[in-house]
Structure formats: structure tokens, C-alpha cells
Specification:
- It is a single chain.
- About 35% of the residues lie in helices and about 15% in strands.
- The chain has about 130 residues and is α+β, with helices and mostly antiparallel strands.
- It has one domain: Peroxisomal Thiolase, Chain A, domain 1, CATH 3.40.47.
- The strands form 2 sheets. The protein has a two-stranded antiparallel ribbon with strand order 1-2. The chain has a two-stranded parallel sheet with strand order 3-4.
- The longest helix has 15 residues.
- The radius of gyration is 14 Å and the shape is globular.
- The termini are far apart.
- The relative contact order is 0.15.
Length: about 130
Amino acid sequence: MLPFVLSNARPDGSVVSIEDVLCLYHPGIGQVEQEIDRLLRQHQLTRSDIDVLISGENGNVNYRNDYEKIESLFPNAQVTYFKHFCGEYDTAINFGLWAGCEILKEQYIPFTMMRQIQPAEKRPYNMP
């Protein structure tokens, strides 16, 4: 599990800035929840501030319940996926990070990344 926070604040003309990184080795779901809350508090954010969640869910039914639990922590977030594009491998998170940067840069989430299409009034950014 590698949660991180992206921001569209652009220091020195960069597209995005990685403000924090947290690595957890074989955490329980309770520890993941605690660390997410700690990371958000550290950046003066709450769960409801998150409008897009890029999930690392890969289709493995053995872990699906864990991903659903984490995704449910963010009621206002459009849940997106990326591993159906790149597969599961040790550095797949980098593809997810790149996808997040592109979403922020373009202010658009490709429909092929979405878990389900949100009603227009709940869609983040300028999605049609």
C-alpha cells in the first residue's frame, strides 16, 4: 500500500507536486485507515476533501474486500482504476502516479478509468 497526496499547486511551473509518501508493509486494514487519516490531517485535509481516488485494485478477489473498504472511506470521491491498462507488477504504482498527474494536468478523467459514472453534479473537474 502506497498512499500519496497530489496537489495542483504548481511550484516553479511544475505540473504537480508530490507532497508526501507513505509506505506500509503488509498492513492490516485498520492500520491503513489510521495512516490515511494521519496523512490527510498532516496536510489539513479530510476524507470528504478527496474528489478522485486512484485505486490499486487489480481484480484479485482475495483482496477485493480490502479495496472496497478503503474506497468506501472516501464518499465524495470518483473511484478510478489503472491496473487494467498496465497490469500488476512491482512498480505499477508509477503508472498510477502518472495517471494521477495527467488527470490533474488535463482536469479530465477518462471514462475507461472510472468504476462507475457519477451523476453530472458530482463529477470532479470538467467532465462531460
